[in-house]
User: What shape does this take?
Amino acid sequence: MTLAKSLLLGTAAGFAAIAGAQAADLPSRKSAPVNYVKICDAYGAGFFFIPGTDTCLKVGGYVRVQYDYTPGRDVYGIATAGAGAAQTIAPIATAGFPLGLGQSKSAQDTTGVEARGRVDLDARTPTALGTVRTFIRLRAANTSGVRNTNGANNYVNNAVTALSPGSATAISIESAFVQWAGFTFGVAPENYALVPGYMYGGMPYGGFPNGIKQLAYTATFGGGFSATLALEDRTDFSVATNNTYNHTPANGFHLVANVRVDQSWGFAALHGLIGNNSLRNDFAVPGAGFASSTLGGSFNNGAGSLASTGTATPLLGSATVGGYAIGVTAKINLPMLAAGDSLFLTANYTKGMLGAITGNNFNVQSVPAGHRFLGGIQRSDSGIVITSGNGTLASPYTLGSTTGWNVAALLTHYWAPQWRSNFAAGYIEINPPTVAISSATTNNGFQWGKGKFWTLAGSIIYSPAKDFDIGLELQYASMKNQIQNLTAANAAAFLAAGSPGLKDNSFALKMRIERQF
Assistant: This one.
């Protein structure tokens, strides 16, 4: 048995050896090696290598749904008669509305919805002179009601006009830039306004959520110090730097700079902006007259209107007035209160660059959310206004700049890891230049004077999971206006109509659901 068993085992081993040798001569059927995605931890969490390259990519974004409620406000129209100091103000009788009422609050949307989706792509590749970063942030939104970028019922030029009150869909490029060796090329976040937009709009400080086309250079020093110098496209500025009812060639840039220090306690920055405002009149034929321009602002369309005389020679070509802004911003971390707590403080002064102190036109018109500040604040200012003259060759227009300043604070507090609040408060003051009135000047007979605004806002946000927020916010704003060149007769007309536009207050209630990924 032992001998037989040994022979069987030896025979089996021999067959196995022969079969193995024959198999070695056959073509291989082994699968090609799989090129698995590899984690890239050189730039933080979420990055992975694009297969076959040394480029690391991070994909992110969010979905946001926001519901707004803000009460409507009656809009009063003011008609003028006569010229210069002889002008009088009388309420406009608009068809379907009581005397003096341009647009009833009952004709305005009071609710709105915005559904938004955003996709972020962040690609980084090492080079001999540092990392080259390519970043894209695309946003698409569908809006309606007070959130509708097409507007709702709108009071324009002494008549109620029904604009598109339905849904609107728009795609925006928040960012599309390349960064390398300290340079930034493309659409990137603003280099002047440094307070984040934690609140849901209507803030008492400048902000540029869509980004600004720019060419910038940032130098980084030791100890957390850095400095940035940038050329920024002025057409992306949050408050237009051209005269509202005139056309300006889009060929200008703002020069923006900031110096900041970042430390464990937060950061502090000094920032400045230099630019210009332009006025261009398209009417080049003497005697043609024109129907609308800006002269200090008025109550009928938010920007003033000059009478179409048919005899005046308008300002030909373009006129430019320089402007600037300067400010300080600081962030102070407050871990002694709770993990994640922080306080932002900012103060700014401007001459002509109103976007440096506010991201809103304080306009009562029920047009897009960016022009309807909390639903009822009536004010619209331009960086420059016509201060004298009637547009003839003998009496050309002179221009002056609007000045203003603000102070604001934004506090974030975590009540618990899943519960937090934002609280904001701010004050804005806007001072248009003095406008001369003479019998030779064809204008409305009154102009915006000083405007004072203060706002308060608070929110409560619940995060049932990481990067998933459900928030409720309440905002309140108050405004007081002064009027230049208001005669006793005009003042009586305003008082008879309940002082429309001279003071106002309003609130807005907003709910937001946001899921980031």
In short: The chain has one domain: 58-516.
